[in-house]
Amino acid sequence: MGTPVEAHLAVVTGASRGIGAAIAEVLVANGFQVALLARDEAALAGLETKLGARARSFRCDVAHEASVNATLDRIEKSMGSPGVIVNNAGLGGPFHRVDEVDQAEWDALFGVNVEGVRHTCRWALPRMKASGYGRIVNIASLLGLFGGARSSTYAATKHALVGFSKSIAAEWASAGITCNAVCPGYIDTEMLAKADSQSRESLLRRIPAGRFGSAEEVARLVAFLVGPFGGYINGSTLVMDGGLSAHVANEVIGF
Ligand code: NDP
Q1: Is 17 within 8 Å of 193 (Cβ atoms)?
Q2: Average of pLDDT values for 117-140?
Q3: How far is the CA of 117 from the centre of ligand 1 (A)?
Q4: Which of 115, 112, 106, 92 is nearest to 193 (CA)?
Q5: Could you check whether the bond before residue 94 is cis, i.e. omega within 30 degrees of 0?
Q6: Region 162-188: what's the mean pLDDT?
Q7: Which of 12, 9, 20 has its CA nearest to residue 134?
């Protein structure tokens, strides 16, 4: 607990691909040292090589508190105590109706999307408090603010994450710590690539911007939140969705 946190050392979970890999890349470009966490060691090693000396990879399954604690202890010993945690690791689906979702699917999603975040926060918050500095960003979703048919499990995890983020903000702000939730709409990553082409077309028609977001756009928002201009943004849910959630009237009333 004695090591002061380093404002320019960031842990990014789910960094092996998609939004997490983009966040790591943008943070390195902005002068951060980054610890890359995920389960796919080969993908992590590839990104570590691409990003160079300021990135190091660590195999970690965020669903297991022992794995998270052991990994964060290793990072603390080898790189220092992180001042920034970006909780990005997440599972999508299952696209089932409530009565079709089995307990294993429910548990798996909550294990990664909610408990995974709780594990890193439990480890980091007391250390950040001791140093009087910390930045936590949790990657939630538009489905952390709205519901969706066949999305109840995912939406429940992301609503939980939004509430968890706001509560951390309220509880730890006096210690110089901020915690925010980013709520992306549809971002073009492997998670979205799993949707069939008909669903992708139908989604695109509903997005006022006429395109999906990119992982890099989410990453830039994260970099802003953990950078020098983000200090007074706390407990916020930042939506990035190309206008999708702003035109409910078109969808419901049919303007
Ligand atoms: P991907 O499926 O492309 O990547 C998910 C990442 O999470 C991978 O790096 C994966 O790594 C990691 N991960 C999954 N399970 C675990 C685990 N148990 N322990 C550690 N890491 C894990 O998803 P995206 O990049 O699209 O999504 C990233 C985040 O953004 C997620 O939280 C998602 O819910 C959210 N989001 C995505 C949107 C989109 O449209 N793409 C929209 C809104 C939110 P590995 O398999 O190597 O462990």
Answers
A1: no
A2: 98
A3: 13
A4: 92
A5: yes
A6: 98
A7: 9
Phi, psi dihedrals of residue 179, rounded to the nearest 5°: -145, 120
Calculate how far, in angstroms, residue 126's C-alpha sits from the geometric centre of ligand 1.
Answer: 26
Q: What are 30-33's contacts with CB under 8 Å, separation 24+?
A: 30/223, 30/227, 32/8, 32/84, 32/226, 33/6, 33/8, 33/9, 33/79, 33/80
Which pTM does this prediction carry? 0.97
Summarize the confidence of residues 153-171 as an average pLDDT: 98
Does 133 qualify as catalytic in the annotation? Answer: no
Distance, CA of 176 to CA of 71 (rounded, Å): 24
Handedness of CA 142, 145, 148, 153 (dihedral sign): positive
Closest ligand 1 atom to residue 187 Cα is 40
Query: What are the C-alpha distances in Å from 200 to residues 37, 81, 203, 206, 210?
Result: 29, 41, 5, 10, 11
CB 209 within 8 A of CB 185: no
Strand, coil or helix: 59: strand
Ligand 1 test: best mutation among 44, 189, 216, 238, most atoms within 8 Å of CB?
A: 189
To test the pocket of ligand 1, the residue of 17, 154, 186, 237 to mutate (highest count of ligand atoms within 8 Å of its CB) is 17
Cross-strand bridge partners of residue 81: 5
Say if residue 29's pLDDT is above 80: yes
Note whether 221 and 214 are within 8 A (CB). Answer: no
Query: Is 89 within 8 Å of 132 (Cβ atoms)?
Result: no
